[in-house]
């Protein structure tokens, strides 16, 4: 097996184990800890920590530790969050959420930098286009990574499936489910009752063990990558916090980045809606908490398969066609969710929506990362730090207003941000096409000028 591909698989398996635990926990926060909004508040502070760390931590840690040990160190922050859930309260969940958030931005920035370097290195050896190999590597990564949602949610569904059922959901409760839900007035009903503490401890034990395995696998098997650390006169020099902060924001002088920030911002909003609102206001409200895992398995499985597919399709269709697919799919889902009134008799529809959401989310996850890696190849660490910063801002705002706005209002906000993001992306593609066309036009005019000169002679 090729060395680059082997390392991509190691990173992917490490993330698979880590997010099997975190993904399952995130999807259950709003349903498990609904009292006084603790679960949503924990998620909001988590992404607030990620927002702050995106400003300066990724370049500092990657330059000082390298991609490998940045990933390992950041993974430990995720394990701490799992431990904090054993004694869930404002004094345990909020601090561990902040710690996880601080580690999340370096983790994802290091992952993006690592895959980009590996892809370009392999492309150079094989004589292939760098962007095609990078796209393929991101596709492989997200195929394996997104499957973590299958395993994490399957585990939670099997464990919580042992909770006694409480009969049919009252029609009065169903009237306030879906887009009509405002502040989740039906949170205390039987259908969404909290599982026993023994079952919660069993689930948390499995999740914590999975996170520890991820740390060990990455620390032992992943090879350090060259190019993540900059050297000068043979000595490694780590940037200061202030210079790292500046390097992250200096990229804002690039017009393309100022336009592209809406893509990761929307990615944060749409993921937050699925994890915090669709699971609670649609699935838990109408079906019960035991169905959350199964519905999210459908999302994760389709997301994983589409991630691999898009990584290969991008070389033939180009990224613009894939972005169009993602935008049209999410646009259709948002409008349909505004009109749909969820009911237990429509069980298949719950899975259809989560599956279609996965089809579109796979576009944002694979193509956004590849786009940033290709357009900002000379400033990969700062570019991916910017990406995580704006994605985290989307999470923070979405989870922040989660307990204050009706679901219908949240869907209209999603619709607005998606529309703006698509327009901004189109402008960037126009700028890139002009940039590529300009050198070609210059090359075509030179032979004509030379021919005219020879004629005159």
Features:
457 residues, 1% strand, MFS_trans_sf, Ion_channel_UNC-93, transmembrane helix, single chain, mainly alpha, transmembrane, Protein unc-93 homolog A, two-stranded antiparallel ribbon
Roughly what is the average pLDDT, rounded to an integer? Answer: 83
Tally of extended strands? 2
Strand content: under 5%
* Rg calculated over all Cα atoms: 23 Å
| Spatial order of the strands forming the largest sheet | 1-2
Q: What is the string of helix and strand elements? A: HHHHHHHHEEHHHHHHHH
* Major sheet attributes: 2 strands, antiparallel
In the predicted model, the low-confidence regions spanning at least 5 consecutive residues are 184-192, 230-238
What is the straight-line distance between the termini?
A: 60 Å
Question: Which structural class matches the secondary elements?
Answer: mainly alpha
- Quick one: overall form? globular
The helix fraction, in percent, is over 70%
* Count of helix runs: 16
Summarize the structure.
It is found in: Membrane. The chain is an all-alpha fold and 457 residues long. It has helices at 3-32, 38-54, 57-84, 90-126, 130-146, 148-160, 171-174, 197-221, 241-250, 255-260, 262-286, 292-317, 319-339, 347-375, 380-400, 407-456; strands spanning 231-232, 235-236.
Task: Outline the fold blueprint.
Layout: H1 3-32, H2 38-54, H3 57-84, H4 90-126, H5 130-146, H6 148-160, H7 171-174, H8 197-221, E1 231-232, E2 235-236, H9 241-250, H10 255-260, H11 262-286, H12 292-317, H13 319-339, H14 347-375, H15 380-400, H16 407-456
Antiparallel strand pairs: 1-2
Helix pairs in contact: 1-2, 1-3, 1-4, 1-5, 1-6, 1-8, 1-11, 2-4, 2-15, 3-4, 3-8, 3-9, 3-15, 4-5, 4-15, 5-12, 5-14, 6-8, 6-12, 9-15, 11-14, 11-15, 11-16, 12-13, 12-14, 13-14, 13-16
